[in-house]
Amino acid sequence: MKKIIDLRVTLSERVGAQCVLLKAKPVEGRLPECKPGQFAQLRVDNPETFLRRPISIHDVEGDEISFLVQEVGKGTSWLCSLKEGDLLNAVLPLGNGFTLPCAKSTCPSLLIGGGVGVAPLLFLGKRLREQGVKPTFLLGARSKAQLIRLDAFREIGDVFVTTEDGSEGERGFVTQHSLFTSHSSPLSFIYTCGPMPMMRAVAKLARERGIECELSLENRMACGVGACLCCVEELADGHNHCVCTEGPVFDARKIIDN
Ligand SMILES: Cc1cc2nc3c(=O)[nH]c(=O)nc-3n(C[C@H](O)[C@H](O)[C@H](O)COP(=O)(O)OP(=O)(O)OC[C@H]3O[C@@H](n4cnc5c(N)ncnc54)[C@H](O)[C@@H]3O)c2cc1C
Ligand code: FES
């Protein structure tokens, strides 16, 4: 059940060129149960920034929650400036989350992340592993400097990398990786989060190969709870859907292919 909760920052660490890994624990009580793919609305205590900022749940270990924040503007810059011991107010967990196999499973799953879109995939990979699925990660970035937390991903599954400039892993986009040309074992599920063009390309590839696929949209949000409608996305059924409450995770077949 969602809660408004005060968290105390336990770690704030620079990772990669533009990101900060934030870990925090509730000041009082327990963390509510969170699912991979859900997000938090983090309050930015800066007079110039009125709205909370939506940030994916990167990991949960006991009562400690982690966020991976990329500094792109005033809100994320404030979040990235937090230090150990500071307070962080959060509304969480929000949104629906990824579909996990309902029983112990050995279905091969590929988790594809681009840029800071890798954030929700660590928590997802851990949960899949607990259910008997060894996750394989395919992580893409513009260059080596933008690859984030590869070691943490390597602790839970196999990790493949693409960079657009070839500075790490295979050169090109994630959909051009040799996994898709040489991988002999069939995939049963793809989960993806990252820039929209990347997710559309992944969704197309999954559709062509008959692989189930879910993607996590990162539309601009204001309220995060279905009240303002600023996050709506037109889906293939021709209707507008509220990403903060009906998503952010959607079946890839529902996304308009353009
Ligand atoms: C469900 C969800 C989960 C997210 N998870 C993460 C996460 O784990 N880590 C993370 O770093 N970011 C995440 N984001 C994106 C993050 O919310 C935005 O980057 C942030 O709100 C920008 O706030 P700002 O004040 O720093 O920048 P602003 O001043 O608001 O914007 C700065 C620049 O960033 C662009 N921008 C703002 N919001 C978004 C967005 N949603 N998508 C793409 N570009 C945007 C703007 O167009 C502008 O160019 C998530 C967004 C959503 C909706
Ligand atoms: S952000 Fe307000 S309805 Fe989704």
How would you explain this protein's 3D organization?
This protein has 6 helices and 16 strands. The N and C termini lie far apart (36 Å). The strands form 3 sheets. It has a 7-stranded antiparallel β-sheet with strand order 4-3-7-1-2-6-5. By secondary structure, it is of the alpha/beta class. It is globular and about 50 Å long. It has helices spanning 74-80, 119-130, 150-154, 179-182, 196-209, 243-246; strands at residues 3-15, 19-26, 39-42, 53-56, 59-61, 64-70, 87-94, 109-114, 136-141, 158-163, 170-171, 189-193, 212-216, 233-234, 240-241, 249-251.
Bound small molecules, which ones?
A: flavin-adenine dinucleotide, FE2/S2 (inorganic) cluster
* SS-based class: alpha/beta
How many domain regions?
3
Low-confidence stretches: none
Strand residue content: 25-35%
Task: Measure the end-to-end span.
Answer: 36 Å
The CATH superfamily name of the largest domain is Nucleotide-binding domain of ferredoxin-NADP reductase (FNR) module
Q: Please estimate the helix content.
A: 10-25%
What can be said about this structure in brief?
The protein has 258 residues and is an alpha/beta fold. The protein has helices at 74-80, 119-130, 150-154, 179-182, 196-209, 243-246, and strands at residues 3-15, 19-26, 39-42, 53-56, 59-61, 64-70, 87-94, 109-114, 136-141, 158-163, 170-171, 189-193, 212-216, 233-234, 240-241, 249-251.
Which features characterize this protein?
single chain, 258 residues, alpha/beta, Elongation Factor Tu (Ef-tu), domain 3, Rossmann fold, Dihydroorotate dehydrogenase B (pyrk subunit), domain 3, 3 domains, seven-stranded mixed sheet, 16 strands, binds flavin-adenine dinucleotide, binds FE2/S2 (inorganic) cluster
